[in-house]
Specification:
About 30% of the residues lie in helices and about 30% in strands. By secondary structure, the protein is α+β, with helices and mostly antiparallel strands. The chain has a single domain, classed as Aminopeptidase (3-Layer(aba) Sandwich). Strand 4 and strand 5 form a beta hairpin. Helix 2 packs across helix 4.
């Protein structure tokens, strides 16, 4: 590994009393690999930072809409310590829980009865059904919380996400204020 990459990679995992259990719902991808899908946990900070470091620059831009070399620890800590009343965040991990292969979340706006989604998948795990599995769970969670709509802004050049939301019945429209962004939404009845 060159010095540039090693400088932006988060530190290796250490045993932590806050480490999450390796439990969760078993999911097998189309290519036969297994992950565990479970709620995010405060002990996931280091694994989330490592997962972010594995994203390609394009994936980072598609997830956060700007360039970032690393996920700062304070942001990872915030992402792993969700307010369960407002946010539902899940991760897909290796069977032993050591590495995060996908992360997805909704933030619920109860006044509007709408949930905003966000999702990121490890580049070596794209195209095998993991994104759809996570999105299916977000849709179900939004519905269970009484949301009538789930939505997200997607960069127009993010073909994988545009295809995913289209397969899942989302409507799509370029935003009038920014043609590089597509608003995807689906009514939940």
């Amino acid at each position: 590994m060159n010095d540039y990459l090693s400088a932006i990679r988060p530190p290796a995992a250490r045993a932590s009393p806050l480490a999450p259990p390796a439990a969760g719902e078993r999911f097998v991808t189309r290519d036969g690999r297994e992950v565990r899908i479970r709620p995010i946990h405060p002990g996931d900070v280091a694994a989330l930072r490592r997962a972010f470091a594995r994203l390609t620059p394009d994936q980072v831009h598609q997830r956060v809409f700007h360039a970032m070399n690393e996920l700062p620890e304070r942001i990872a800590t915030w992402m792993c310590n969700v307010d369960p009343q407002q946010t539902h965040a899940i991760v897909a991990t290796d069977p032993d829980g050591s590495e995060i292969r996908g992360e997805a979340r909704i933030h619920c706006d109860y006044a509007a009865a709408a949930a905003e989604f966000a999702i990121a998948i490890d580049p070596s795990w794209t195209g095998v059904g993991l994104g759809q599995a996570l999105m299916d769970r977000l849709i179900a969670e939004a519905r269970s919380r009484g949301m009538t709509e789930i939505w997200g802004d997607v960069l127009a050049d993010n073909g994988a996400m545009i295809d995913l939301v289209a397969r899942l019945g989302f409507q799509r429209q370029r935003r009038a204020d920014d043609a590089t962004v597509v608003r995807a939404w689906r009514l939940l009845d």
